[in-house]
Amino acid sequence: xxxxxxxxxxxxxxxxxxxxxxxxxxxxxxxxxxxxxxxxxxxxxxxxxxxxxxxxxxxxxxxxxxxxxxxxxxxxxxxxxxxxxxxxxxxxxxxxxxxxxxxxxxxxxxxxxxxxxxxxxxxxxxxxxxxxxxxxxxxxxxxxxxxxxxxxxxxxxxxxxxxxxxxxxxxxxxxxxxxxxxxxxxxxxxxxxxxxxxxxxxxxxxxxxxxxxxxxxxxxxxxxxxxxxxxxxxxxxxxxxxxxxxxxxxxxxxxxxxxxxxxxxxxxxxxxxxxxxxxxxxxxxxxxxxxxxxxxxxxxxxxxxxxxxxxxxxxxxxxxxxxxxxxxxxxxxxxxxxxxxxxxxxxxxxxxxxxxxxxxxxxxxxxxxxxxxxxxxxxxxxx
Length: 383
Hints:
Elements: E1 10-15, H1 18-34, E2 39-44, H2 46-51, E3 54-58, H3 67-70, H4 74-91, E4 96-99, H5 102-114, E5 119-122, H6 134-141, E6 144-147, E7 163-165, H7 179-186, E8 194-198, H8 203-223, E9 228-233, H9 243-246, E10 254-258, H10 261-266, E11 270-274, H11 277-283, E12 289-293, H12 297-306, H13 314-319, E13 326-328, H14 334-346, H15 348-363, H16 370-381
Parallel strand pairs: 1-2, 1-4, 2-3, 4-5, 5-6, 6-7, 8-9, 8-11, 9-10, 11-12, 12-13
């Protein structure tokens, strides 16, 4: 059926993983507040759909991490790219808000540019870590680049990209409460040793990270018989996706919580957290943590050749030094995970030093109001 143009303003939004979905949803709320009647279509997760996005495809179909993981999904991903291009040509949105996911969104931006549709890109690609030459491509296809890390804006100087640091969306969050308050909110016993495990929002991350996390939990329980383990289930996942892994540890007390990652980490004495946005989300709760990640051997080999940074964890990058342990690939073993968590549980000086450094990271994220500033940028380019 042919699309019938609406009298209201309409924009295109594309967001992939859970954090991008959350940031985009908050921006859409601000856009609707500033411009009543504004509508949006595109690709998003549950939070964007709840905010009113007309989803032409779910975020889960384009949110894939790692070269080996992407290859079998290429036909579907390219199909969505073509479908969005056709929808944009037909509907002629007044602007596009593309959030993160550079390998997909920069290709889409090139198509939108040919259609004369202004593009606002939210969450800069990590050109400071690898493929700095992408800045030239960005300059050709993006009208406004909105950065969420304080050091990113300067990497665009002299490239022709109109970039602005808008503050980090997580700066909206109030200072964390006590572990006991979060345990009470989650229905957890207040006096027990509590360990959070954050395995990620993608099936591939669950497959690689949850089994060694659960093995580490078994080791920690042996040293702390009162220990309870809590896992937030990302909005992009179903609880059933975790069941096969939990089935191998029936005697281990693992509490699943839908979403609410910050509360789960806030309830913890220490946390195992997958690398990515989750590390910053967890770090803002000012709880000791260990960062872990595993890629396929092929994806990791390619990453080692291309990525030139000293640290992987976002909190370490922002701090400019290693403030939290990073366990990658073979080092992300149950033995190492359990040993690092045990150190944080037992060494008061190590705990306090890490928490003090995380306070510095929290202070570096800018002032609250990022969703409003992004919404204003989108309205500023609308035709």
